[in-house]
Every structure is written in C-alpha cells, then in structure tokens.
C-alpha cells in the first residue's frame, strides 16, 4: 500500500495513506493503550500463542497481527479468538472463499457499486460505501456480493491508519427492492455477521444507511438481533434526509450522490489499487486451518 507524506494543514487524510501522524499515534495511545514497548511485547506473545495452536498455519507478519491486536485494544485473548474466527470462517464457508482474489472480482469491480471514499473523515476514519440498491441481482448473486465486500475489507484491514481510527459503513439503499430481498437468505445474513462482525479485524465506528425504503426493514429486522450491542448502538437510519447524514460525515468528503462536493461516485482508483494487490491475496490463501477445530 502506498505511503505518502502529509501536509500537516491538510483537513482530510487521503484514504490510501498509511502515514501515522502525531495525532493518530496519540489516538492509538489514548484509545488502544498502544505504546512501542507494548506493541513489541504483545506481538511476540501473540506469535507464541499461534505456534501452540494445533493445525493452524497463520500469517505472523507484524502488520497482519497488529490488525487483530489493535481492534481488540491489545487484549491478547480476544485478539487470538478473533484470529481463530478469521481462519475458521474459511472452512465454515468454503465456497465464499473460493477465488478469493481481486482478479476474480473484475466484473463486479467494474459495476461500480462498492467503494472506499477517497478522503477520510477529520478523525481519520475510512468510509466504506456500498450502494446495495444498485446491485443488479440478475448479474451477481448474494454470495458474489458478499465475497467482494470481504475482499475490500481484507485489503483495508492492514492499513495502520484504519487499524487505529476504524471505518464507517455508509450504505446507500436507493433502488433496493423485492428482487434484492429474494436474493438474501437467513444463511446469507448469518454468514455476513460471522465473517464481517465476528471474523474481521475492523474497528466498526458506525453504520449509516441512507435512502432506505420501507422494505429494507425486512432485512434489518433479521440482521439487528445478530449484531453486537455496541454495533447496534452505532447504527443510524437517515432515509432520504442527507442533512441528517451530514451531521456525522462532512459533505466535503462525500460524492454528489450523497449530497457532497467530491464529484460523482466512482471506484476507479480503488479498483486499480485492489487489482494491484493480487499477489498479496494469493499469498494469504496459503494460510489457515488444516482441519476444523
């Protein structure tokens, strides 16, 4: 992932940046309890735990393991449990993790309905923006959409800024209809929760839903009981009231479709960066459990 030196006067950090500014380092200390000494010691303890886990061949690179430690605020047992969930899901949902590389998602990438916004919030939070109402159900299955969403999250989870500051999900449901409802099963919803909420090292800071029609309540009614208490408290349903959204996310970083000033929604830059990470995904496929625990 490209690093870039930032102007200290810049209001918004570019999404692709990996530079931990003084403010972000301070945030890591205050919110996560992270120090250089603690980071080194816990990384070594984490690696020792992994070596003792039967049948697990895990990626033990520092950048990868830091994602799990940071999201769990350096609670080693919780980080280790999340790591085991991360690898176990590949055995529980084998078809979801088949062809788990950007090149196999070329068609859905070109469909331009999922993207990370080019700029972060003033707090450094990444904004993941799936436009699920634009999903063409006659072209892509629910599993294909879920797989691509996981690939996008997988790409971002090793970014140190996102590890510290977290991410917001901004879901645009404009156009969401019965054709989408019929595609999504209870199994799909449980799979989403098990993989995204309980199996990925992502700090979910909030979920904002815009342009949600009344039938969205059917899916949301099934999903909500499965979510953690913390995540439930961070969900905001705005309907078509974009002024309500702007109280949380400034228009200065949003595309025109969301009432912002950053031009039209487009994922070309993210598309190219994701495709450039093909070897990274292939390398990660070498790791995992040999048998179900």
Automatic annotation (TrEMBL):
Keywords: Coiled coil. InterPro entries: CRAL-TRIO_dom, CRAL-TRIO_dom_sf, CRAL/TRIO_N_dom, CRAL/TRIO_N_dom_sf. It comes from the Eukaryota. It holds the Pfam family CRAL_TRIO. CDD domains: SEC14. Residues 25-63 form a coiled coil. Gene3D superfamilies: Alpha-tocopherol transfer, CRAL-TRIO lipid binding domain, N-terminal domain of phosphatidylinositol transfer protein sec14p. Residues 101-266 form the CRAL-TRIO domain. GO terms for cellular component: membrane. One of its GO terms (molecular function) is phosphatidylinositol bisphosphate binding. This is Alpha-tocopherol transfer protein-like protein.
């Amino acid at each position: 992932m490209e690093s870039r030196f930032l102007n200290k006067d810049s209001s918004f950090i570019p999404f692709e940046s990996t530079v931990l500014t003084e403010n972000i380092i301070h945030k890591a200390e205050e919110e996560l309890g992270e120090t250089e000494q603690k980071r080194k010691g816990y990384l070594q303890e984490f690696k020792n735990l992994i070596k003792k886990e039967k049948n697990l061949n895990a990626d033990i690179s520092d950048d990868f393991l830091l994602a799990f430690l940071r999201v769990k605020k350096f609670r080693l047992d919780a980080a280790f449990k999340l790591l085991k969930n991360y690898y176990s899901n590949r055995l529980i949902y084998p078809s979801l993790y088949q062809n788990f590389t950007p090149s196999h998602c070329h068609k859905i990438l070109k469909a331009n309905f999922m993207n990370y916004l080019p700029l972060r919030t003033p707090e450094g939070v990444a904004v993941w923006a799936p436009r699920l109402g634009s999903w063409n159900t006659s072209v892509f299955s629910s599993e294909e959409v879920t797989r691509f969403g996981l690939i996008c999250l997988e790409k971002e989870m090793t970014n140190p800024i996102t590890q510290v500051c977290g991410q917001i999900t901004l879901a645009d449901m404009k156009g969401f209809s019965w054709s989408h409802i019929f595609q999504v099963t209870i199994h799909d919803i449980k799979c989403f929760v098990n993989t995204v909420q309980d199996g990925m090292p992502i700090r979910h800071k909030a979920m904002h839903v815009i342009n949600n029609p009344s039938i969205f309540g059917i899916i949301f009614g099934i999903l909500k009981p499965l979510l953690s208490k913390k995540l439930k408290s961070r969900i905001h349903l705005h309907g078509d009231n974009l002024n309500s959204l702007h109280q949380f996310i400034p228009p200065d970083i949003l595309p025109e479709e969301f009432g912002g000033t950053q031009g039209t929604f487009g994922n070309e830059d993210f598309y190219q960066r994701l495709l450039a990470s093909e070897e990274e995904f292939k390398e990660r496929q070498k790791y995992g459990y040999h048998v179900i625990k």
